[in-house]
Amino acid sequence: MRSTPWTNEHDQLLTEAAPDAAVSDDAELDRVWNCLAAEIATDVPPRRRRRRRVVAAVAVGAVVFGSSSLAVADLYSAHTGKGPADSEDVRLGGPGERLDPAAPE
CA 56, CA 2: separation in Å to the nearest integer? Predict the structure, then answer.
């Protein structure tokens, strides 16, 4: 296993280059937390917005579920269940099933 190129000298250089962090007193921390608590209390979204989001999520889920159900039910399938109609079809398309090129599959 290859060792990392990081050494104690790197640690020392990083410690020397890092600025000293300012120490906050309790009064300043209380002031900041009080400001944050006031902002959080005023930023509560109205219930109507939540209902709209829920209704939108349910609608999207219904569309996804419905289209998945149709795909599983072979309504989006390119399969036609029809083989070649004549010798020209066999010569041009082979002996297999004719597929619907306009199908979304």
Answer: 53
CA distance 92 to 86: 10
Query: 45, 60 in Cβ contact below 8 A?
Result: no
Residue entry with tokens 């109507």: 48
Buried b (16+ CB within 10 A) or exposed e, 59-90: eeeeeeeeeeeeeeeeeeeeeeeeebeeeeee
Global pTM value: 0.30
Query: Tell me, what's the pLDDT at 19?
Result: 73
Contacts of 97 (CB under 8 A, 6+ apart): 79, 80, 81, 82, 83
**pLDDT (tens digit, 9 = 90+) per residue, 55-93?**
999 999 999 888 777 666 666 677 777 877 788 877 877
